[in-house]
Design a protein that fits this description.
Order of helices and strands: EHHEHEEEHEHEEHEHEHHHHHEHHEEH
Helix content: 25-40%
Largest sheet: 11 strands, mixed
Distance between the termini: 25 Å
Number of helices: 15
Structural class: alpha/beta
């Protein structure tokens, strides 16, 4: 945890104890008013929490202290939850290792030599390490689901437009408002739905969370890999074995037939995500440049100059942030190719929606490999495509833990449904937790 408010949290917990001891309201009334009364939670540092820093790993913001709460944080506090503090992320939340020049690097609780993922990596870490029980994350390319996978917990990326993103930095502009999702991260599957209800507020009416789910009536599809992209690692054998165990369990215990599918466009997931992230929205507004975000309302950063400064040990930015800024420049050199990829993305979304309908779920790897060692992402920077593609498709996805590998590292799976069918993936998360054990305490074989 990057900065805690333990003293204030203890004082708030004493107020809760006093409220309960006075007995002015019965338990049912308190449950309705304050569904998370006295429950501690943590928040990705990219979200505003009153009195806490809100740097998103940017050195130029290191002295910034929030004077208000992000909307989802405010809603959880109003529901009775008690914030413990804020957790680490990657610089500007755009890399899948949570390391920056403000707080340093966060290590995986299952193996300190390995990454926690990003950008909500600190959140995944404190949940996996049993320092916190529920948390707030955000996801524009897998930033909830990768940390949840690497740290052996549950993470839900809701359907686009259900949970508000206000109060985080950087917030999305232009077309990226359709891809950025705020969502819950939890040690236990049963906490995902009540968290989502509170965080979504009125937006929860877009979902069907009160609809009972019978898994026996769900159409299940399975895809074991992206089709062989040269930019992405092959899927680990143990991840495939875990996914096949899920399929076998569904077929033997639920009596369903899981259909294996091949969706050819998934092979181009990274290219599609990258092109759509850089595209204009329906009003013609350009996507915000990463170089502008690095400048944080000052002068835009020049990537090549920053790279030279980095080699001399003079840059305030991390090498992944500089590399992303350079990639952004290169993407502009091929507008025709980008337009084709955007069109392919829209076609993929239609294909996926037709496949899933309102009663289908897709089983798909959360990541091609288990939590890698530090710095590995620099050599395989596009492995996040396994999660990122679902952001630009706007689909709800839940990452579910499936025990530990032979090395003692978390395994997991993504469960994907059609738009506004979050209730399906959340029900599946609860089922898989019962069937496969869910979160495993670090150090426990």
């Amino acid at each position: 945890m990057q900065l805690s408010r333990f003293d204030a949290a203890l004082q708030e917990a004493h107020h809760v104890d006093k409220l309960l001891s006075e007995g002015h309201e019965d338990e049912d009334s308190l449950q309705e008013k304050f569904p998370f009364l006295g429950v501690p939670f943590t928040i990705k540092e990219a979200f505003a929490l009153h009195g806490m820093p809100n740097t998103s790993g940017l050195v130029s913001r290191r002295n910034l202290i929030s004077t208000s709460d992000a909307l989802v944080v405010s809603r959880l506090k109003q529901a009775g939850a008690i914030p413990l503090g804020v957790t680490n992320c990657s610089e500007l939340c755009m890399w899948y290792e949570s390391s920056n020049n403000v707080y340093g690097r966060t290590n995986n609780p299952y193996d300190l030599q390995r990454i926690v993922g990003g950008s909500s990596g600190g959140e995944g870490c404190v949940l996996g390490a049993a320092c916190s029980i529920i948390g707030v994350g955000s996801d524009i390319g897998g930033s909830i689901r990768m940390p949840a996978f690497f740290n052996g917990v549950f993470g839900h990326k809701p359907t686009t437009g259900v949970v508000p993103n206000e109060g985080q930095f950087p917030d999305a502009l232009g077309v990226r408002t359709e891809f950025l999702c705020t969502g819950p991260m939890c040690r236990y599957a049963e906490d995902l739905e009540p968290m989502l209800r509170v965080m979504a507020g009125p937006g929860v009416r877009k979902l069907k969370l009160d609809e009972k789910v019978s898994l026996e009536k769900v159409k299940f599809y399975c895809m074991e890999h992206d089709g062989g992209s040269v930019f992405v690692s092959p899927v680990d054998r143990e991840i495939l074995q875990a996914q096949r165990k899920v399929v076998e369990h569904l077929e033997t215990q639920c009596g369903v037939q899981v259909q294996y599918v091949t969706i050819h466009k998934m092979k181009y997931a990274f290219q599609i995500w990258s092109a759509m992230m850089s595209s204009r929205d329906s009003d013609g507004q350009k996507a915000q440049l990463f170089t502008d975000l690095l400048g944080d309302h000052g002068k835009p950063v020049w990537p090549l100059w920053e790279l030279m400064k980095w080699f001399l040990g003079m840059s305030l930015h991390t090498i992944p942030a500089i590399a992303l800024a350079l990639t952004e420049k290169l993407m502009k050199l091929n507008p025709g190719g980008n337009a084709k990829l955007v069109s392919m993305g829209h076609s993929l979304r239609t294909e996926m929606m037709n496949l899933l309908g309102t009663d289908g779920m897709l089983l798909y790897p959360s990541h091609p490999i288990v939590a890698p060692k530090h710095y590995f992402p620099l050599g395989m920077p596009f492995n996040f495509a396994y999660t990122a593609v679902f952001n630009v498709l706007g689909l709800p996805v839940t990452q579910c833990p499936l025990g530990l590998s032979s090395e003692g590292l978390p395994l997991g799976i993504q469960v994907v449904a059609g738009p506004h069918n979050d209730h399906l993936t959340l029900a599946m998360a609860r089922y898989l937790e019962k069937a496969f054990g869910g979160w495993v305490c670090p150090g426990k074989s």
